[in-house]
Amino acid sequence: MCKTALHEFLHGLPKCEHHLHVEGSLSPALLFQLAKTNKITLPVSGDSSFASISSLQARYERFTSLDDFLHYYYIGMSVLLTAGDFESLAYEYFSHAHRDGVHHAEIFFDPQAHTSRGIAYTTVVAGLSAAQRRAEADFGLTSKLILCFLRHLPASEANTTYAEASRLGHFSDGTVAGIGLDSSEVDFPPELFTEVYTSAKDAGIRRTAHAGEEGDTSYIEKALDICNVERIDHGIRMVEDETLLKRVAKNKMLVTVCPLSNVQLKCVTTVAELPIRRFLDEGIRFSINSDDPAYFGGYILDNYCAVQESFELSVAEWKYIAAGAIEGSWCDQARKETLLRKVDEYVAKYA
Ligand SMILES: Nc1ncnc2[nH]cnc12
Ligand SMILES: [Zn+2]
């Protein structure tokens, strides 16, 4: 198949996205619009990046590390105030994901980044849930929310956020599907959050964590051994430890890879450096995701195409990736079977 035909194939291939920070889908256009509506003054002194949409976009092309990006990410989300703002944000993401061929999305949100600014947890969740309902009604796109704890903040604050979501019944009624761990990785290892992860495990709540993005393999090991995660976000550094790689493959644990993010944040120099071929050879189950698409120059389809350009995968290998992404999702079995059937029918047309 020629390059154009393969991109067309990737466009129509039924996709699941599992690694998407909804706050990272805040486009510069929506950021400036909400800043104006909500009368938020963006910090222009000392950093002219916020002077205009184009200067901000230009700055996004020069991130030097995860922390350099996070600086802009946290300022950006300060324009989100009302449930309507969160709904607009998430609906804009779902619309783009639908256009890219996403059928099921499991999206991260960072409640502490909002409650610390005086925005109620319930405001955030009300807006995101409304967008989820609209996306399912309008596009048939199903979705889940994953509540992330910010690892640069004290673990006691993660416990407080977890307690609020639990008290509201958000884990038991399905409003929130699971927990995650994000923000600055190095110096904030997963074991700092043992207490909240143990409570979640005891309560039967799904668990994932960012590990092995900038941090070494010990972050992945600790996430597995101490936090009992069922999924690993990024995890690209697991190839540095053969035993770990085999363990993740054997347990059919989903690894959520984010190619363009890893390049933009200088975790790798090029997409070709990512362990995609190694993951396929070892039988690792993984999905391909956009992480923070408004900041990293591409949504999910751009990430699929970037992988294709570097690795020239076959239709059979893409079918393996699409099926693995469905099997590693946290939706119910009936939904998984529907999606697996869609992949089978779609790929059959290209056989
Ligand atoms: N790539 C990433 N790593 C850690 N925390 C994040 N928050 C948003 N994007 C992130
Ligand atoms: Zn991430």
Automatic annotation (TrEMBL):
- Source organism: Calycina marina
**Could you tell me where this protein is found in the cell?**
Cytoplasm; Nucleus
Q: Where is the Adenosine deaminase domain?
A: 14-345
Which PANTHER family does this UniProt record tie to the protein?
Answer: ADENINE DEAMINASE
NCBIfam families for the chain = aden_deam
- InterPro entries membership: A/AMP_deam_AS, A_deaminase_dom, ADE, Ado/ade_deaminase, Metal_Hydrolase
How is this protein named in the record?
A: Adenine deaminase
Site for Important for catalytic activity, residues: 234
Q: Where is the active site?
A: 213 (proton donor)
Function statement: Catalyzes the hydrolytic deamination of adenine to hypoxanthine. Plays an important role in the purine salvage pathway and in nitrogen catabolism.
Entry keyword Ribosomal protein: no
